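Budget justification aside, the reviewers requested a transparent look at the raw inputs and outputs of the sequence design task funded under Objective 1. We therefore reproduce one unedited record. The lines immediately below are the C-alpha cells for a 116-residue chain.
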C-alpha cells in the first residue's frame, strides 16, 4: 500500500520561497508519473505540477509556471516542489499523489500560508 508524508509547508511572506517534500512508501513509486496538488479553502483540489516517472518531463499549471519547480529522487522515493515568489493565491494545503486516476489514498498534506 502506498502512503505519502508531505512536509515543508509553513507561513511565508509574499515573495518568499518554500521547498516541499513528499516521502512515498511502496516499491512501485518509480514507475509512475507524480504530481503536486493543492486545495485552497472552499475550492476543489487542483493539480499544479507533474513529473514523469524518470523525471525528464515536467508540466505546470499556468498559475505557477515560472515560479514552481517539481523534481523527484527515485532512489529516495521522494518528490519535491520548490516554490518561489509566493503570493496569497498560493495559500492552500499541498498534497502529492500520482497524476493519473485513480489516485492512491491521500496523505495529510502540508499547509502553505501567505502571511500578508
Amino acid at each position: 500500500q502506498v502512503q505519502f508524508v508531505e512536509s515543508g509547508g509553513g507561513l511565508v511572506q509574499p515573495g518568499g520561497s518554500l521547498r516541499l517534500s513528499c516521502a512515498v512508501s511502496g516499491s512501485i513509486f518509480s514507475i509512475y508519473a507524480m504530481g503536486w496538488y493543492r486545495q485552497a479553502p472552499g475550492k476543489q483540489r487542483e493539480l499544479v505540477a507533474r513529473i514523469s516517472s524518470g523525471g525528464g518531463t515536467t508540466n505546470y499549471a499556468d498559475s505557477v509556471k515560472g515560479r514552481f519547480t517539481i523534481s523527484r529522487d527515485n532512489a529516495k522515493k521522494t518528490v519535491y516542489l520548490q516554490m518561489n515568489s509566493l503570493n496569497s493565491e498560493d495559500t492552500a494545503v499541498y498534497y502529492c499523489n500520482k497524476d493519473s486516476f485513480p489516485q492512491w489514498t491521500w496523505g495529510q498534506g502540508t499547509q502553505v500560508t501567505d502571511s500578508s
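DSSP finds no helices and ten strands in the chain. The first strand starts at residue 4 and ends at 7. Computational costs for records of this kind are itemized in the attached budget.
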